[in-house]
Every structure is written in C-alpha cells, then in structure tokens.
Amino acid sequence: MTNLCTKVSLRKKPLTNGMSSLYLDFYPPIRSPKTGKKTRRETLGMYIYTDAKERFKIEYNRQIMQSAEMIRCQRSVDIINRKFGFIDRNADKADFLEYYARKMKEYSNDSNWQSAYKLFSQYCNGKCSFGDLTVDFCQGFLDFLLGLDTQKGRKMMATTANGHLRRLRSILHAAFDDGLIDENIGTKLKMARNDAKPKEYLTLEEVKALSATPCKAEVLRRASLFSCLTGLRISDILNLKWENIVIGMDGEWCMHIITQKTKTEAMLPISDEALALCGERQEGTVFKGLSKSMVQLHLGEWIREAGITKHVTFHTFRHTFATLQIAAGTDIYTVSKLLTHSNVSTTQVYAAVVNEKKREAAARISLE
Fold first, then answer.
1. Phi, psi of 64 (to 5 degrees)
2. Distances (CA, A) of 47 to 42, 134, 156
3. Domains of the chain
4. Whether the Cβ atoms of residue 289 and residue 219 lie closer than 8 Å to each other
5. Using alpha carbons only, how large is the chain's radius of gyration in Å?
6. What tens digit of pLDDT does each residue of 157-190 get?
7. pTM of the model
C-alpha cells in the first residue's frame, strides 16, 4: 500500500508593522493534534523583518529562518511517525470488513466476537471501506443494534449492544494504530445508557429457605445453592469437573475454569461451604446427573415448596450471588472479577439495585 505523505512548506505572511509572520503549510491537510480538525496551517509564533537591509536585521532573519527550518523538518518526521498523521488515499478504498474479520482473531474468535462482526456486516449491508468510517456512521451501529428484535421477540438489551460496540471500537483503535485511518474514531463513540435491570434475585433468608427445603432432584438443589455461593452460570456448572477444583497459590481451594459463554479463563476462589455442596471428590463431572431438562422439570416446584413466590430461573442464582455480595460490602470491581465480566459497567446494575433497596429501607423510618 502506497502512502502519500503530506508536504510541509515554510511560508511567510507580511504584516503591517514591517515584519512577516512565519507559518507551516501542509498539503494535503493534516489533523491537528490540538483540535482534532483538518488544517493546512500551523503558526510558529516567529517573525522576521520583511525588508531587511541592515546587517543586524539580515543576521537576525538568518537565525530565525534557520530555527524555523528545523521545525519544518521535525514536522515532516512527525507526520511520517504519525504524530500528526498522514493521508493514505488507497486506504480509503480498502475493505474494512476483511480487516475486521482478520484482526478480531488476534483478540478472540469466540461467539460474541463472531456475533458482533456479523451484526456490523448486516448493518453496512456487507460492504464497508475505510473511507466509509466516520463517527456518525459507527455511532449509528448502536442505534441499529438497539432496534433489533432478539429470538425472544424483545429488543436487544443495552448491555449486549454496548458489548458489540466495544468490539467495534477495539477494531477501530487497531486500524488507527496500523495507520489505516487518520482519526481514532472509537474514542468518540458513546455507549447506550445501561438501563437493563437484572432478573429477580433472592434474599439471604430465601436462599436459606431453599437450603432447608428438600428437592426431588438432590443434585439440582446442590447445584442451585452452589450457584448462589459462586455465581457460576448453569453452563459452567454442567461442565465443571473435579480436575477444575484445585489448590490455589494461597493454599485455598479454587476453580480453574474457562467459561462456556465468553471463553474467559479464570481462577475463582471457592468457599468451604460451596465445596461441601460438590459432594465427595471423584473423577469426572462434579454434579453428575444434572441437566437442563431436570431444571425445567423440578426447579419451579422446589421454589414453591420453599414458600418463594418470585419468578425464579437458574440464572436467578447468579444474580443472587452478585446482589448479596455487593449488599455485604464487597467492592464492585471484585464482584466483576468473580462473575468474569469483561467490563465493570456490566456489574454496575447490581449496585444500582442494592442502592435502591437501601433507599427504600431509609424511607421506612418516618417521624410523621
């Protein structure tokens, strides 16, 4: 790919006081590192005599011009090094979608990245060059996502849409670093307001009630309570093997897993109480016999027998873990790591729920 570097020229502008102002002229224009806008001129703040005849004026002009020429040479080097930016006319026509597909493999090729790529390709009707990339065009991708209907017939959640936009932002940042675009568009993209609320969660008293209530499928009872104590998704619990439960660096038990949903590798601590729910150590799967069909068959009845009237799914136990942790004073960053969230903002919704409950509690006390 051939790059056309901007030419830098030193020019003079005569003033009314007998002096001339020196400035640099860029062609094609550069993007100013101060304003972020395209410009052809940089004023140097240096002046020379317009009509120098005396020896001291001639010598003064010579020294100033020499200093200005050094600045001009440095600007040329800066442009080549992308401190100011250079214009690549061929890059505008290059296939951004091909670059996206190739570059994302360096980050992760999991289902979330694949979905983000397919949705962006759908957004731009399968064609997108680097020249098409603007802040408005890329920001429009978020509006496109929020308007999509999911398989459940609902609009895409803001957290999901933000995740896809962050992946696009990572690719845009890489394209800027690789010199394929002259503006880091990703830094200007705004996320959707995180208005998603977690599904129902259980109070500590309700979790204790579940623990004391027999279930027709004992392995379901143990796995559910295990999720309340660890925050693991059912997909990770189904795949949890005894070889994943190891002694950590601190001498305590941990789970060394790769999450099924995001393919994130994590070393998560496990309490003695949670470990006891796993049963006697054996070979293979920890919760033998557990299945998603078992959850559908027995979970609802078990919840009702425990006297709980809330709508509870297995994923509710993960929400329960997060909410109870934050309510107990665990900082949101730690909870985010325990949940293997890639971004703390995803965890922030649980803090909002806890704050709302605190506000309700405070309002219960009144002197009227």
1. -65, -45
2. 14, 39, 60
3. 7-80 (no CATH), 91-188 (1.10.150), 204-363 (1.10.443.10)
4. yes
5. 31
6. 888 898 899 999 999 998 888 778 878 899 999 9
7. 0.51
